[in-house]
């Protein structure tokens, strides 16, 4: 079993760290929010007082932070944090960030004899809680092989996408598609409701028809169609609108770099920007459903 330092215990990182404890690893944790630390410590992790403490004397450091600037700040800018990581140890960054930042962090750590993989995830909070996440890993074959047994404590499907940064590219393709599906599912359900259909009945019909998709089946944006999803809990928890807005920004940057045509992604980005500007930034991303409700 491994010694692990885990940084970033939010909606995703908290339950991921708990699953590593359950898998028998020795897990030390750190977050800027004391309550988030307390929840994971109650499940058997130990608390570190600082970022430098959490990375000291461990074989693996896992970060699950909001955006590239937080990851770069932690491993590159913050005076002294990386120098507390043992030579030969591995940093696994599971945050969703841009591929260029992942490469920059990887190069910086490599210059200090520290291994690095980017390993963003798919599967949402339910996947993090259930230990069923999909990990999309970028890094060398050897680093992938070393990271895999650790990732298996938190996920079910572990993919090797390519070199450092490739995990982030694959993840951003997936999330652009997710935003498009969530938006399309929301507008279709709202149109049905405005014609007097019961959203549960309409969802059942579309689930057995060609409109079937992950958002409709497992993350339905209409309240009370499914239990225990954010839409049935006032859009609390889950994956925040502002994080999806960030991911769509990353997708548009990636599209520009590769001269790719992404008109649907651009439209989804536009709609999520409107939702965020309306004050919904901290709500779950399925609350895009409410944007179409406003059009009475
Ligand atoms: P979150 O905002 O709930 O959690 C982020 C945590 O990081 C917070 O607890 C915050 O206090 C902590 N943090 C920020 N800066 C820190 C620092 N310098 N040191 C220590 N802790 C710090 O976000 P989340 O939903 O858990 O998402 C984390 C990452 O996972 C994001 O990149 C997101 O895009 C990605 N992601 C989220 C989901 C989801 O469904 N929520 C799904 C897939 C991927």
Please identify the structural class as seen in this structure: alpha/beta
Gap between N and C termini, in Å? 57 Å
What CATH architecture of the largest domain would you give? 3-Layer(aba) Sandwich
CATH first level of the largest domain: Alpha Beta
The fold-level CATH name of the largest domain is Rossmann fold
Strand content: 5-15%
How many beta-strand segments?
Answer: 9
| Widest sheet, order of strands | 3-2-1-4-5-6
Question: Which blocks of ≥5 consecutive residues have pLDDT under 50?
Answer: none
Q: Percent of residues in helical segments?
A: 40-55%
| SS summary, helix count | 13
CATH superfamily assignment of the largest domain? Answer: NAD(P)-binding Rossmann-like Domain
Radius of gyration from the alpha-carbon trace, in angstroms: 20 Å
Largest pleated sheet: 6 strands, parallel
Number of domains: 2
Pathway: Amino-acid degradation; L-valine degradation
EC number: 1.1.1.31
Active site: 171
Family: Belongs to the HIBADH-related family.
């Amino acid at each position: 079993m491994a010694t692990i330092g885990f940084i970033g215990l939010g909606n995703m990182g908290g339950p991921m760290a708990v699953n590593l404890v359950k898998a028998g690893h020795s897990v030390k944790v750190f977050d800027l929010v004391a309550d988030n630390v307390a929840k994971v410590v109650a499940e058997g992790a130990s608390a570190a007082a600082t970022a430098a403490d959490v990375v000291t004397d461990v074989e693996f450091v896992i970060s699950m932070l909001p955006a590239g600037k937080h990851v770069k700040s932690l491993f590159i800018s913050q005076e002294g944090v990386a120098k507390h990581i043992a030579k030969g140890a591995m940093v696994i960054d599971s945050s969703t960030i841009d591929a260029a930042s992942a490469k920059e962090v990887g190069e910086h750590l490599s210059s200090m004899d520290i291994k690095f993989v980017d390993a963003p995830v798919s599967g949402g909070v339910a996947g993090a809680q259930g230990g069923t996440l999909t990990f999309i890993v970028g890094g060398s074959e050897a680093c992938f092989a070393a990271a895999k047994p650790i990732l298996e404590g938190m996920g079910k499907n572990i993919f090797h996408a390519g070199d450092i940064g490739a995990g982030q590219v694959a993840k951003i393709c997936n999330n652009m598609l997710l935003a498009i599906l969530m938006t399309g599912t929301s507008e279709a359900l709202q149109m049905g409701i405005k014609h007097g259909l019961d959203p549960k009945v309409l969802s059942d019909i579309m689930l057995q028809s060609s409109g079937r998709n992950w958002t409709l089946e497992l993350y339905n944006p209409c309240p009370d169609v499914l239990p225990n999803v954010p839409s049935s809990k006032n859009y609390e928890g889950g994956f925040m609108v502002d994080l999806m807005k960030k991911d769509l920004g990353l997708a548009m940057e990636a599209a520009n770099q590769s001269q790719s045509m992404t008109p649907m992604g651009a439209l989804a980005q536009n709609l999520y920007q409107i939702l965020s500007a309306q004050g919904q930034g901290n709500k779950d991303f399925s609350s895009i459903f409410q944007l179409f409700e406003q059009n009475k």
